[in-house]
Amino acid sequence: MVREKVTVERLTRAAAEMADEVGFDNVTVSALARAFGVKDASLYSHLGNVHELRVRVAVLALTELADRVADALAGRAGKDALVAFADAYRDYAKAHPGRYTALRVDLTPGTPATAAARRHSDLTRAILRGYHLPEPAATDAIRLLHSTFHGYVTLEQSGGFGHHPRDADTSWSRVLDVLDTALRHWPPD
Amino acid sequence: MVREKVTVERLTRAAAEMADEVGFDNVTVSALARAFGVKDASLYSHLGNVHELRVRVAVLALTELADRVADALAGRAGKDALVAFADAYRDYAKAHPGRYTALRVDLTPGTPATAAARRHSDLTRAILRGYHLPEPAATDAIRLLHSTFHGYVTLEQSGGFGHHPRDADTSWSRVLDVLDTALRHWPPD
DNA sequence: GCTGCTAGCCTAGGGCTCCTAGGCTGGAGG
DNA sequence: CCTCCAGCCTAGGAGCCCTAGGCTAGCAGC
Hints:
Mean pLDDT of chain A: 91
Low-confidence stretches of chain A: none
Number of strands of chain A: 0
Shape of chain A: elongated
Structural class of chain A: mainly alpha
Distance between the termini of chain A: 59 Å
Largest interface: A-B, 39 and 39 residues
Largest sheet of chain A: none
Oligomer: homodimer
Order of helices and strands of chain A: HHHHHHHH
Strand content of chain A: under 5%
Number of helices of chain A: 8
């Protein structure tokens, strides 16, 4: 473990990595201090409290996820965009389970988290551009997409699909087919 | 607080109530012991460790939820069954946020949790009876439904829908309409 | 009724976590 | 050169999880 200069940014990144390795709930101020070769009390020069650390990891994750999704969406429309978004989302969650779990922390309004969350919501809305849904159907559709992606990834992560032989990847692409159809034939009113 | 005889069942129920009131993560052995007017060390005559307590609450919640859903499904088929299931699910999560959160604990196989989880999965499958989906489409459909319900409820619970004026109930019934359509026109193969 | 077992409480205490208070120091800026 | 302060330290309190070991009341068997 190379002993780096302690900064809030480095602490946040280290916490995110630790979360992916040992689980978000096992990231503690003490463990982080140990990783930096420093006493835990010392970290309070950089952090207000544990909650701030957790929120920082959540914002980091939200930002990274939005970046990936934005990349994936670039130049795509319609089902292409839907699948790219969904895959980027799911791949991120798989690659960074701890960071993904961090997204569940209470992001009380007013924090920089709100901005990151808005960006995320805007990106989800961008998927719909190819489907030409008017409001309020668009909002309902976004909620459906977000719920399904989040739910699928969460259940998969917690092993909810392991009891059945059907491959989770296959189900996933089937689910995306169905969502695409749903968006193309969204009921009026 | 009436001081009741301490039993595992009473501890579990009290923990579930406490979870709904102060959040699942704030249910501790110490707090539970205080509620029973007893020292925390005393609870270890009844419980092996905190994890056991959490799993017990999760199993309690899973069982209660399965009961509600089973009630809701009785005598219904098709979209009726779908909506009844979904509403029972969402209503339970709203009424018992702490218990619902408990369902996210790792239910390692082998525990009585497995049985409760299977019952839950069987009930979800019962919804599909009216839609006549063959395997493996049925499994994919169950995964879609479960993901969407779970995701929607989780996001709603964590305030994810609060930023937009569109009513969460309205979106919910729209989502159910769309899922019903999807199940009726599930793509072949 | 007496004896002995056990369920279920207790105190004591160790280890980890979060966090506060206050002290020391090395290096940057005046 | 001297001052200041960022950023480390030690000390310590409080809460939580859990173990070890002791006391007691009530029940079972004689």
